[in-house]
Amino acid sequence: MAPGGSACKEVVESHPSVADYDIATAKSESNTTTMKSPVSLLGKHGIHSNNGVYELLECPVCTNLMYPPIHQCPNGHTLCSNCKIRVHNCCPTCCYDLGNIRCLALEKVAESLELPCKYQNLGCHDIFPYYSKLKHEQHCRFCPYNCPYAGSECSVTGDISTLVAHLKDDHKVDMHDGCTFNHRYVKSNPHEVENATWMLTVFNCFGKQFCLHFEAFQFGMAPVYMAFLRFMGDDNEAKKFSYSLEVGANGRRLIWQGIPRSIRDSHRKVRDSQDGLIIQRNLALYFSGGDRQELKLRVTGRIWKEE
């Protein structure tokens, strides 16, 4: 049992239907569609500024709003600290050496400004002082979610309904209704752990969506299989639910019980924290039965809402 798990005393009842999954070699997928919102350049109460102050705070290189330290060249051209490194300390407007001149006047002007959250068009209508806006946006509940699909460099972001449709239509992920499941994962050559496909199934349960991950990877020198659940929503909502996973055969079983992790946490972060059911390959093959030359691992589980 992985660290942090706790054993259930009762036997988990599984969904009547059984799903079989072949674990194949992963193929890199490319999907560059994004749903990200542009940074808002509106003034307080959503009124456009007429004096060009907001335009002055845009970095001419990356076009993002600038935050201290704001740099300027001897001729007064400004840019952000990140782009100062990118242009090798040479002003992109007049080619003068930038040196280490701070534009303190512009930094001071920024302190008096108030701006809406850049996720305003997604539902956040709060107004923030200029220097508080960035911190808020990092934790804004209206911030789009990243696609939870693992094993590909998918850059799609959006709200939950958008991502559910994206997973179904673009990644061809299996969708199931219900809070119990009974899946069998099959792999003809279980000795090939590297580049095993990440398996993902989405469950509609309690009016929410949950992502069940199953994968193979090297943990140190040992090849292992791991199953874990992620919640399609924020962490405060995820903590309202619990789940259990069970695998076993021949009178033996492993049981994991935990809280689903929000998809705000990346797939790799959850996997590397070992927050799920971890099965060593030799034990997985023992559970598979037969001559242990083929993986046939049955994983059952359920999701419930905490009172």
Automatic annotation (TrEMBL):
Reaction(s) catalysed (UniProt annotation): S-ubiquitinyl-[E2 ubiquitin-conjugating enzyme]-L-cysteine + [acceptor protein]-L-lysine = [E2 ubiquitin-conjugating enzyme]-L-cysteine + N(6)-ubiquitinyl-[acceptor protein]-L-lysine
Keywords: Endosome, Metal-binding, Transferase, Ubl conjugation pathway, Zinc, Zinc-finger
Class of the enzyme per the UniProt entry, highest EC level: transferase
One Pfam short name: Sina_ZnF
Location of the RING-type domain: 59-94
Species this chain originates from: Theobroma cacao
Ranges where the SIAH-type domain occurs: 112-172
Keyword Zinc: yes
Annotated pathway: Protein modification; protein ubiquitination
Protein name: RING-type E3 ubiquitin transferase
InterPro entries according to UniProt: 7-in-absentia-prot_TRAF-dom, E3_ubiquitin-ligase_SINA, Sina-like_RING, TRAF-like, Znf_RING, Znf_RING/FYVE/PHD, Znf_SIAH
GO molecular function list: ubiquitin protein ligase activity; zinc ion binding
GO biological process, one term: ubiquitin-dependent protein catabolic process
Compartments reported by the entry: Cytoplasmic vesicle, Autophagosome; Endosome, Multivesicular body
CDD domains documented for this protein: RING-HC_SIAHs, Sina
Family: Belongs to the SINA (Seven in absentia) family.
Coiled coil regions in record: none
Main location: cytoplasm
GO CC, alphabetical: autophagosome; cytoplasm; multivesicular body
EC number: 2.3.2.27
Described function: E3 ubiquitin-protein ligase that mediates ubiquitination and subsequent proteasomal degradation of target proteins. E3 ubiquitin ligases accept ubiquitin from an E2 ubiquitin-conjugating enzyme in the form of a thioester and then directly transfers the ubiquitin to targeted substrates. It probably triggers the ubiquitin-mediated degradation of different substrates. Mediates the proteasomal-dependent degradation of ATG6, a component of the autophagosome complex. Requires TRAF1A/MUSE14 and TRAF1B/MUSE13 to target ATG6 for ubiquitination and subsequent regulation of autophagosome assembly.
Superkingdom classification of source: Eukaryota
